[in-house]
Design a protein that fits this description.
Blueprint: H1 5-19, H2 22-38, H3 40-43, E1 55-57, E2 63-65, H4 67-70, E3 75-79, H5 86-104, E4 108-113, H6 117-126, E5 133-135, H7 140-144, E6 148-150, H8 153-161, H9 166-170, E7 177-179, E8 181-186, E9 192-198, H10 207-220
Parallel strand pairs: 3-4, 4-5
Antiparallel strand pairs: 1-2, 3-8, 6-7, 8-9
Helix pairs in contact: 1-5, 5-10
């Protein structure tokens, strides 16, 4: 049985490659290449930058201010596409599995998606998550971090084929956009201590790598 998120993602991707028609896979690969050529990841917030404020509704619809967590210690912030994305669900479960170690290192964890609070609640319940799952409807925070990209017309046809209406999922009629999968560690002063993001949503930061950053920091204090 796989023990790391990287292994789990690779296993799922192997099956995904067999299930998804070749023409759809080709479109998605072209879009990933397009994002890489556009250099969107290089323009996003990076280590040393001040993190934008994060005040968003949680799964119950109450406004959650990440600054309240920063008053206690560093915060891991992971951006995911939505509860409809199997790669995202694997990532969220992996974070839940290491949550006790994150807390032991003096840190907190929040996950952010562009989905509506009701869908965030469904994601939290489905994956038995005990950390805050926040809804960035309109992607104000995702855009402030520099993570949001627009769909091409070609990519929209693929998601239509999957019967995934992204504007409806996100509560933003006519807006076909998603965030890159990105993970940050924000320090007590609001500065970014760790940043890892990529244009291929099938690859994610392994929580064990984030833990290493947190535990090294805790040991140095």
């Amino acid at each position: 049985m796989s023990t790391t998120l990287s292994d789990q993602l690779e296993e799922y991707r192997a099956g995904w490659m067999q299930r998804v028609p070749a023409e759809r896979r080709a479109v998605m690969e072209r879009h990933i290449a397009h994002l890489a050529e556009a250099g969107i990841a290089k323009l996003a917030r990076k280590v040393g930058d001040q993190a934008p404020p994060i005040l968003l509704p949680d799964a119950q619809g109450s406004i959650f201010d990440v600054a309240t967590l920063l008053a206690k210690g560093p915060v891991v912030v992971t951006f995911y596409r939505g509860g409809w994305c199997p790669f995202c669900n694997l990532e969220l479960k992996a974070y839940q599995n290491v949550l006790p170690r994150i807390v032991a290192a003096g840190a907190s964890l929040v996950a952010i998606s562009p989905e509506k609070p009701d869908d965030s609640m469904s994601t939290a319940e489905k994956n038995a998550l005990t950390f805050p799952v926040l809804s960035d409807v309109g992607q104000k925070v995702g855009k402030a971090f520099g993570l949001v990209y627009e769909f091409t017309d070609e990519l929209r046809t693929v998601y239509d084929g999957f019967k995934l209406d992204i504007p409806e999922k996100n509560g933003t009629p006519g807006e076909w956009s998603l965030p890159l999968s990105g993970t940050y560690v924000i320090g007590l002063d609001g500065r970014i201590l760790f940043a890892d993001l990529g244009v291929d949503y099938r690859h994610r930061t392994d929580p064990l790598d984030v833990l290493q950053v947190l535990e090294h920091r805790a040991a140095a204090e």
